[in-house]
Amino acid sequence: MEGLESTLVFDITMILQVVLIDLALGGDNSIVIGMAAKNLPKHLQKRAILYGTAGAICMRFIMAFIVSWLFQIPFLKTVGAILLVLIGIKLIGADDQEEDVHVEAKDSLWAAVRTIIMADALMSLDNVLGIVGVTNNHWGLLMFGMLISVPIIVFGSTIVVKVMNRFPILIYIGGAILGWASGGMMATDHYLAQYVSLAANNPTELKIILLVVTIAGGFIWKRIHKNKEVVA
What we know:
Elements: H1 2-25, H2 29-37, H3 42-70, H4 76-93, H5 109-123, H6 125-135, H7 139-155, H8 157-166, H9 169-187, H10 190-193, H11 197-201, H12 203-231
Helix pairs in contact: 1-6, 1-7, 1-9, 2-5, 3-5, 3-6, 3-7, 4-6, 4-9, 4-12, 6-9, 9-12
């Protein structure tokens, strides 16, 4: 019974991490969807957003499958771990910077749907990499987390933005999760373990180190950006 409870708590925690990462990294996706559908009649806008969201979810699953398959290539898990650290640093360091996001508005339903799917796919590579890293290729948790978080981003974008602005600590938690996940990803790279056994033998220490590196890197990024603004 205790084993079942601990597994349930672990799964719920993992799903919460997936949702938080998707929310932290997916702020611009909802803007893209709005831009693509804004020229459509109102009765078609809802259909475009609905169909586009469904297609975006399917595309994310395909991308996650490809990423999981690529991680079988020697040392690519380590490369993915490094990328996760960089994504976490950017998330923390650029949390108060506005990105220039522009997508051409479409005049037909299916053109808008295609634009939504392709734009979301291009903007979600970091999300997918982070989720695969956090779940460690656990497809049940990965699918459930995506099914929850993507509709939240699309249909609750205004609420998500308000929550993120109200509680900026969530951005730091998201970056910390990415750093922790990168350590787990690197520790499970069997090819790296053949040459650096220290990584595989000390997974918790490695996770803590990369978590600290991610947060510290984010603060340094933010500091440099603010100094440039002062100089300008």
